[in-house]
Amino acid sequence: MDLEKFKVHGEPLIYGAMISIALATIGIIVGLTVFKKWGYLWREWLTTVDHKRIGVMYILAALLMLFRGGIDAIMMRLQTAAPDMKFLDAQHYNEVFTTHGLIMILFMAMPFIIGLMNVIIPLQIGARDVAFPRLNAVSFWLFFFGAMLLNISFVIGGSPDAGWSAYFPLASIEFSPTVGNNYYSLALQISGIGTLITGINFIVTILKMRAPGMKLMKMPMFTWSVLITNIIIVFAFPVLTVALALMMFDRLFGSQFFTMANGGMDMLWANLFWVWGHPEVYIVVLPAFGIYSEIIATFSKKNLYGYTSMVFSMLIISLLSFLVWAHHFYTMGQGVMVNSFFSITTMAIAVPTGVKIFNWLFTLRKGRITFTTPMLYTLAFIPIFTIGGVTGVMLAMASADYQYHNTMFLVAHFHYVLIPGAVFAVIAGFHYWFPKVFGFRLNERLGKHAFWWIIISFNVTFFPLFLLGLMGMTRRMYTYSEETGFGPLNMLSFAGALGLAIGFVILVYNIYWSTRYEPRDTTGDPWDARTLEWATNSPIPAYNFAVVPKVQTRDALWSAKQDNIPLFTEEITKIHMPSNTGKPFILGVVFFFFGFFLVFSMWIPAIVAGVGIILVMAAMSFDRDHGFYIPAKEVIATEKKLRGETV
Amino acid sequence: MMKQLFPIRHVMGYIASLVLSAAALAVIYLDLSKTVDIIILTVTAIIQASLQLFVFMHIGESADTKKELYINIAYALFVGLVTIFGTLFIFLWGWYA
Asked: Where is pLDDT greater, at A6 or A287?
């Protein structure tokens, strides 16, 4: 066998990455063995079907990927900080910006949101778990091993290098002969299947498992946003699945779907990619809207203004999100009629989004506002996201877009949309729901330090990019000459990127500090919040609610607290729970090897792994598992203990 | 016993979907005009889809979530048709000429 194709040559940085990956792996293995944690890891985490633990694992993975993608970002900003920098070569720079995009969207923003969704949704609707707990574990492990497959590409064989959108013909085997784009098609495919399963799981959960009395129009806003998001997932991801499969056929088996000869059509890739890609933007942004709605209502001590219009604006956004995709390629060659149509549908999205912004402002009006860390992120989101939205309308005008297209102006625009619209939201949600999961809050002083670092540095990093774009700097250029005059603003942007890094380091330090010193919360409701997830104890017991709550109003917990409406009226009885299983984890591992062998066209091992996948799935379908019961006595004891009483 | 092994409704459904698939193949093996081809494909596809939905996916069974199910199918149709006709709109009817 030829080992040469696995090697990546030449760059001291890559050797550094190899060594650090090897050291981290050895460190983890030694650590687990020394502290005798292998059994604990397997029993409590790898085999778990508990939605809260799966959510925590999603968020941990997302934080790791945030740092991986962040390091990519700093490398790019460093390479472009001054004219004619020699830090990265062109190939390496291409790989870095491609993986930065892929990781930040698919392996950071998505799992962070799915993680919060996993932890919070069953609690918010008063359920004991998601509809299909075991399938939920399958989702997570497919996502996780898909992400790992993409991550090892950096040191084994080379990363994808044709941009996160992998446009053909550049991404074809003819112009990108390395295995990089094979990794792209397979890693995204594996984690994409996981996401699709999540979508189905949560639609069923929200439609079928709500607490008695919770009509659709009485659901909390975050639950609504997640329901709509998952509907978009179920309808958008199949397009990506098909596109990636065609791409894989083209690259591995010599088919001609996206080639420029033999009846293939390279532009069809861009078309299919954005049929998925634009709804994908709303998949990460809509849950963020839900998170902000919860936070604004809680910290203004008011119910959300315009609940019905909030729901309908999200529904309209979800429909419109499928009608705008061609605005990503105005310059590809379609006529005026097509561009005008997509221009108008794109601008129309600003209307329901504007409705939401006004609703948040009216919720704040005359509210008793407390400036906690999650609230600060929310308040910062409104003006920054509006700048992103307004520049979006500028880009939406097809004729003007011929000027902005593929410049740094576009890069600045989507960072102004996605960072407040997804990253600030998940950080805000992380601070807001942290006490629910772990039983103590993150420190407010450190949290605000991190907030100011992040918010100021964000603007220092990305505002100069608007100006650079208008000056004519195109995106994805790995260097430029001094005469262009791009130097000073790029240096400013690099300084901002370093500030962002400091902000995120403070954020992580805050987790460490709070774990050690922050006082523990025994009320289960530290923010004086409004929705059901705060009605149970924190940390949350395995069964979520000792008794299933009865809902009468929209802000169920708030009215329970204000008007003394009892939420829990029934006696505690035995509780049925799903049992843990290791099969989803094993399935993920087998999928990982299947993907890896396909990337390198190693057919015999790939077929063996493929048969392995079918065998594991067959074993899962014939599994007879009726779960188990927690006896009432044990539930009562746990409840007393969590409330700090002595048993 | 025989009824359990061969639930008549499902066996018939299975045979029907095989027949429909074979009928769709006629488009390749028989030399028909393009219009007839499209008609055959459309009709067999619609029958096939409803067969799957009603016989194998039991869409008519649960009364409480009927509305949600049909809204979801309408949404799926919307997305599918928008994708197909949008693509045709971009690359054929509205292509710059």
From this structure: A287
Nearest 5°: phi and psi at A551? -105, 135
A68-88 pLDDT per residue, tens: 999 999 999 999 999 999 888
Q: Which two tokens stand for residue A460?
A: 């220092």
Cα atoms in the 13 Å half-sphere on the side-chain side of A443: 17
pLDDT of A640 above 90 = no
Burial class (CB in 10 A: 0-12, 13-18, 19+), A399: exposed
| B29–A contact, CB cutoff 8 A | no
Burial bucket for residue A162 (CB in 10 Å: 0-12, 13-18, 19+): buried
Cβ-Cβ contacts under 8 Å, B96 against chain A:
333-336
For residue A547, what are its two tokens? 């008794």
C-alpha distances (whole Å) from A558 to each of A56, A430, A512, A541 are 27, 22, 32, 22
- pLDDT bin (cut points 50, 70, 90) of residue A561 is confident
The minimum CA-CA distance between B46 and chain A, rounded to whole Å, is 19
Among residues A436, A302, A409, which one has the least CA distance to residue A360?
A302
Q: Does B96 touch chain A (CB under 8 A)?
A: yes
On the 0-12 / 13-18 / 19+ scale of CB atoms within 10 A, A568 is: middle
| Model pLDDT, residue A32 | 81
Q: Do A239 and B86 touch (CB under 8 A)?
A: no
pLDDT score, position A9? 62
Q: What is the ipTM of this complex?
A: 0.84
What element of type H or E holds A575?
strand A575-577
DSSP bridge pairs for A334: B95
Please judge whether A235 and B79 are an interchain contact, meaning their C-beta atoms are less than 8 angstroms apart.
yes
* A residues 318-377 closer than 8 Å to B (CB): 319, 322-323, 325-326, 333-338, 341
* Cβ-Cβ contacts under 8 Å for A522 (sequence gap 6 or more): A642, A643, A644
Distance CA A282, CA A275 (A): 12
Render pLDDT for A316-333 as a digit per residue (tens, 0 to 9).
999 999 999 999 999 988
- Domain limits of chain A? 48-520
Q: How far is CA A117 from the centre of its chain?
A: 10
**Residues 36..65 of B with a Cβ closer than 8 Å to A: which?**
65
CATH of domain A48-520: 1.20.210.10
Instruction: Taking residues A141-163, report their average pLDDT.
Output: 91
Q: Is the pTM of this model over 0.90?
A: yes
Bridge partner residues of A628 (DSSP): A577
Please report residues of B whose CB lies closer than 8 A to that of A212.
none
User: Which are the contacts of A409, defined by CB distance < 8 A and separation ≥ 6?
Assistant: A391, A395, A465, A466, A468, A469, A470
